[in-house]
Each structure stands twice: as structure tokens, then as C-alpha cells.
Amino acid sequence: MAAPVSVSASDQAPERAPGGGDAGGAARDRDDSAFLRACRRQPAAHRPIWIMRQAGRYLPEYRALRQRVDFATLTRTPELAAEVTLQPLRRFPLDAAILFSDIMTPLQGMGVELEFEPAPVVRSPLRSEAQIEALPPLVPARDVPFVLESIRLVRAHAPRGVPLIGFAGAPFTLMCYLVCGRPSKEFAAARAFLYAQPRATERLLGRLADAMAAYLAAQAGAGAQALMLFESWAGLLAPREFAQFALPAVARTAAALRSLGVPLIYYVNQGASLMPAVAPLEVDVIGVDWRSQLSEVRRVLGPGKAVQGNLDPAALFAAPEELRRHVDAVLDDAGPGPGHIFNLGHGIWPDTDPDAVARLVDYVHERR
Ligand code: CP3
Fold first, then answer.
1. Which of 79, 88, 344, 355 is the most buried (most CB within 10 A)?
2. What are phi and psi of 172, to 5 degrees?
3. Which residues lie closer than 8 Å to 279 by C-beta, 6 or more apart?
4. What is the pLDDT of residue 7?
5. Active site residue ranges
6. Using the 8-state DSSP alphabet, how is residue 163 labeled?
7. Nearest residue CA, atom 13 of ligand 1?
8. How far is it, in rounded angstroms, from Cα 271 to Cα 292?
9. Banded model confidence at residue 2, pLDDT cuts 50, 70, 90
10. For 33-84, how does the pLDDT look when each residue is reduced to its tens digit (9 = 90+)?
């Protein structure tokens, strides 16, 4: 029989100091990791790096598991979700883990019927006020207990010094899927809904904001050491509509989480023109895609925020020495100061060579 997926003690990665440095004592403590320090804009022994979608289809071991188990089952089975979360950490000395789940998983918990094909497809897209009013609140311990159990398992088995990031979709991005029903380039139905029914849109975004606040707080309670909100479709909105609809919903989620003291990351895809609107938001880190210049993002956000990003995922297809040049460009653009977490500008592509990821992680650590 193929090696059973398990998170048994024998799978536990040895204690290590990412970056090859001898980070003894406090630096090995989970709460003093380079990643968490960078989230708080404190100097760190090396530049932390993790990779959006690091647990997933570019890894042969993930694909092997997916041949046997469908995606939804993976997310709902704590032993399997924890296993997939830990897979990239066994290969690469990454500075953070991200929970294996999906932004649509808590909506399933709220009774929204959907399939992963593999992208999420909602059976009955939300188009009416009645449907919005019928959305129940999310009670994480009752509706998505498997997510919380997955977090506990990952925390028990992750290498020391590698914090776990819990996550959720940002309200507007979730609304895009809920109203359109399936991924799309333009999300036309969701944007039309926003203009046609602005009050219903605000109601929906408010409900999602509250549900995601409860969801993220429960993840922190289960052991997630940082929390991230994915605004994957921010770039669909003009700055005015972003500020009127998407941003207040995120602010509402963020406000509910503030007292937890857990760093909050807001990833804003294609958000170069949205940075002035984002700057006052009470989050610790802003993640950006490769179309933004980090130096400019830092200038606009000011010293009170850390930044995360932003290598083009396509750069992992460059020759090794070229890849280093592109990494240098990101690091130079981010500048030497604290408060930069290296990442891709968006999720890693499924056809990426894992060896390129190994080279990337090592080189970022070498550069310090
Ligand atoms: O490694 C990680 O980052 C953790 C796992 C994770 C998944 N989805 C697993 C997944 C995370 C953080 C997400 C977030 C997510 N899901 C986002 C926000 C981030 C982004 O990329 O913008 C969005 C928009 C989704 C919605 C979604 N789920 C899409 C569009 C797809 C299909 C295409 C794709 O990117 O793979 C999914 C399915 C999905 N979610 C897969 C994985 C590994 C592929 C399912 C499979 O194995 O067949």
C-alpha cells in the first residue's frame, strides 16, 4: 500500500533555523519567527519567505494524494488537510505555513452548495435580497469544526519556528463568487449587482464581513498565528467603488480581530491604484501583486505597515541566474528596512518546477 497520509510524529520535521543561520534561543521560538517579526515591522535575522498557494498542485506529492481523494474531502479531513499543509515545509525551508483549505469552505459551512471543479462553482448564485437575508451567520465550531481541528493538527506537527497562517476570502472577493456562481475574468454579474442593488450589496458584504471575522477569530483561537484576507478580485473595482464597498467590509472584519493581537495580512490583487484607499486600514501587512512597485507601495502606505510580495509567479520559469536577478530586483525595491515578507505576487502556477521554488527560497535566505 502506498504510504498512508499521516501526520504521525515520524513526519515531524526537525527543528531548524530557516535561512541556515544559527538562530538560537528566542529566535527559535514560534512567536519570534522571522515571519512574525516582519509582520510587526521588527528587524529579523533573515528575510522571511512563503509562497501563495504553496500547498497545492505544483507538488507531485499533492497530485498523488488528489488522485485518491477529491478536493472537498481533503479540506474536510483534518489529517489530510494538515498533511497537505505540511507537504511544502518538508521540501523547502519556508518561513510560514498556510492552512490547506479554500476561501469558499466557510461558505459551504453556511449552507451554500458548491462544487470544486476544481474552481468553486456555486449551485444557486445569490441574486436576490431574499437569498442574502437567508444566509445564516457562521458558527465556526459548529459549521466548520474540521478547519479548526486541521489547525490544531498542523500546530502540533509543524517545524518549530514556522508559524501557521489562517485565512479567509475578503468579503468582496467572496461576493464575486457568490453572485456570479463561478470564476470569471470580469465577474460581470457581481459588478452589475453592485451597481444595480447597492443596498443589498452592502448587506451582503456586511454579513460576509461578520462571518469571516468569526471564522478568522476561531482560526486564531485554534492556533493560527497570523491571519490573511484574500482580496483576489480587488482590481475589478474602480478606486471609488473599492472604497465604498470592498474596503468598509474589510475594515469591519479587521476591527473585530484587532483585540486578538494576531497579525492580519490583507492581500490586494491588482491594487496599485487602491493603495491610497488601503493605507488607513487597520491591518499589519498589505500584500501586493507584481504590477505594483514595492518602493511606491511602501511610500504610500507609510511606516505603519509591512508589505508582502511580489515576484511574478512567471519568474519561476526563468533560468536560475535570471531568477536571482528578478529576486534581487524585488529585494532592492522593498528596501533594506524591516517589514518585508517575500512572496509571489499571486499564487504559484501548477506547472512550476519545485526545484525552482527550492532555488528561490534558498536565494532569498542567502540574501538575508
Ligand atoms: O497553499 C495554499 O495557499 C493554501 C490553500 C489555498 C487554496 N485556495 C487551495 C486550492 C488557498 C489559500 C486558496 C485561496 C483561494 N481559493 C483564493 C485566493 C487566493 C488566490 O489565488 O487569489 C481563491 C480566489 C480561491 C478560489 C479557488 N479555489 C479557485 C479559483 C480554484 C481553482 C484554481 C486554482 O487556483 O487552483 C480553487 C480550487 C483550489 N483551491 C485548489 C487548491 C489547491 C485546486 C484544487 C485541486 O486540487 O484540483
1. 344
2. -65, -40
3. 300, 301, 302, 305
4. 54
5. 53, 57, 66, 102, 177
6. P
7. 102
8. 8
9. very low
10. 999 999 999 999 999 999 999 999 999 999 999 999 999 999 999 999 999 9
β-strand 306-311 against 97-98: which pairing, if any?
unpaired
Instruction: Write the DSSP symbol of residue 280.
Output: T
Alpha carbon distance 152, 105 (integer Å):
17
CB of 53 closer than 6 angstroms to any ligand 1 atom: yes
The sign of the dihedral angle between the CA atoms of 87, 288, 343, 301 is negative
pTM > 0.90: yes or no:
yes
The Cα 364–Cα 319 span in angstroms is 16
80 contacts 74 by C-beta, under 8 angstroms = yes
Q: How far apart are the first and last CA of the chain?
A: 43
The candidate with the shortest Cα–Cα distance to 194, out of 142, 140, 240, is 240
Q: Is 166 close to ligand 1, i.e. is its CB under 6 Å away?
A: no
Asked if the model's pLDDT at residue 248 lies above 70, the reply is: yes
Position of cell 493560527? Answer: 224
Q: Which atom of ligand 1 is nearest to the CA of 167?
A: 12
Residue 29 has a CB neighbour count (10 Å cut-off) of 12
Query: 131 alpha carbon to ligand 1 midpoint, in Å?
Result: 25
Residue having the nearest C-alpha atom to atom 30 of ligand 1: 119
pLDDT tens digit string along 136-165? 999 999 999 999 999 999 999 999 999 999
Contacts of 185 (CB under 8 A, 6+ apart): none
Whether pLDDT at 95 is above 90:
yes
For the chain, what's the residue count? Answer: 368
Query: For residue range 209-227, what is the model confidence (pLDDT) as tens digits?
Result: 999 999 999 999 999 999 9
Q: Provide the CA 332 distance to its chain's centre, in angstroms.
A: 24
DSSP 96-112: -EE-S--TTHHHHHTT-
Ligand 1, residue 350: give the atom nearest the CA.
36
